[in-house]
Design brief:
The chain is mainly α and 134 residues long. It has a domain at 12-71. The chain has helices spanning 7-21, 25-34, 41-48, 56-71. Helix 1 packs parallel to helix 4 (56-71) and helix 2 (25-34) packs across helix 4 (56-71). The chain is elongated, with a radius of gyration of 27 Å. The relative contact order is 0.10. Residues 72-134 are annotated as: Disordered.
């Protein structure tokens, strides 16, 4: 097996991703190992320091492990205006519960959950509100 010219850049980017996401080596290795990685924790550390070369499949498993750990990190999100409570001084977003359809808007009874019948939703079959004629 010859030297892969992309290995140094792949290593550099993996280290940069770990640093940006504050992923410790032990956490990366545990995730990598759970994905069937073959290298031991000391070998991964040596690879990250540029002292050891790893086969491309093992490098890709390290990248997958890092990316999965990054995906698990909580991310800030921009709230919508209706995410906030109407109570004055309340600053935490409130997740509103979905409204229960009583059937009054459509003249039908409430739709039972899991029945697969969504005809009790407001509006006609095309999603537009129905208006009485006359």
């Amino acid at each position: 097996m010859g030297f892969d010219p992309n290995e140094p850049e792949q290593r550099r980017r993996l280290r940069a991703a770990m640093k940006a996401a504050d992923i410790p080596l032990s956490e990366l290795w545990l995730k990598y190992f759970s994905l069937s990685g073959d290298a031991g924790e000391y070998e991964v550390e040596a690879y990250l320091q540029g002292l050891l070369s790893l086969p491309s499949i093992q490098r890709d498993l390290l990248a997958l492990a890092a990316n999965e750990l990054i995906d698990d990190l909580p991310r800030p999100r921009a709230p919508y205006s209706d995410d906030f409570s109407e109570e004055p001084g309340h600053t935490e977003p409130v997740i509103a519960e979905p409204a229960q359809d009583s059937g009054a808007a459509t003249g039908q009874g409430p739709v039972e959950e899991g029945s697969g019948d969504d005809s009790g939703l407001a509006g006609g079959p095309d999603g537009l509100a129905e208006t009485p004629e006359g």
